[in-house]
Amino acid sequence: MPYVPEPWSFDDVLKLTKISPAYWRATFNAPPLNLFTPRTYKALRTLVELLENDQAVKVIVFDSSAPDYFMAHYDLLAREGNENAEGAEASPESEWPGFVLRFARLSAVTIAEVRGRARGLGSEFILACDIRYASLEKAIISQPEVGAGITCGGGGIEWLPIVVGRSRALEILLGSEDFDAATAAQYGYINRAIKDAELSAFVDGFARRVAGFDRKPLLETKQAVNDRAGLPRLSDLTASLNTFSKSCTWPESTKRIQTLFEMGLQQDGPLERDMGQHLPKVSVKLYGKKEDA
């Protein structure tokens, strides 16, 4: 008998479909922005536990139900205790460094199918995936933290030099600009930029191809690449997360973030859609002119 896809749901923010025993899909489902919250983290942690304990799965694809946002960024309001008590049980701010390395070491091949915006932790999540494919017309990827007055805390500082090199990592991190998929592919930020109409079919075809191979050579090859190409160090990820937490309390950062909220942060509008263009305007609002330094 043909395999019947089995739908799962993790608190509705992450939906899992088992296309076959060897091929799964996980869909971020918190529209309109797909903000990363403690609930998202809790769902991801549950998914990783399933993947670690299932010897049949060989590949998992991550995508989004929100057409304009793969994952906007981390929910900054969650830091202020506005998340419900259930969500607070799983704290990405204390567990993320260890968790993201655990995720990177999964035996299953992890693929990000990026359509829409992936900024901040959204960018850092796809960087932790093994392979990244993005919509040529619709994907926008960035690390906007410096422009918002804070620092990366989810691994951008660690992952980017590995995948794009030191100088391009500094350009991405310090410039806080939005990258279209074509430029991101040129830099190595993603594997390929693919026409939107062809993206899902391409990713599905690749996932099915990998799922059809034997598990042992897939696992041994992934482990060897991780060992030889290198993963971020836990100590570095932890240090970056600690600096991020501190940066959110700097007086200048507090002013910038408050101004961004006044401009529409975490609402589906001009700021979230074109954040790279709007970040320099914060200095104008705060100081009346662009900062010289």
From TrEMBL:
Lineage, broadest ranks: Eukaryota, Fungi, Dikarya, Ascomycota, Pezizomycotina
Organism: Trichoderma asperellum (strain ATCC 204424 / CBS 433.97 / NBRC 101777)
Name by which UniProt lists this protein: Enoyl-CoA hydratase
A Pfam family the protein falls into: ECH_1
InterPro entries on file: ClpP/crotonase-like_dom_sf, Enoyl-CoA_hydra/iso
Organism domain of life: Eukaryota
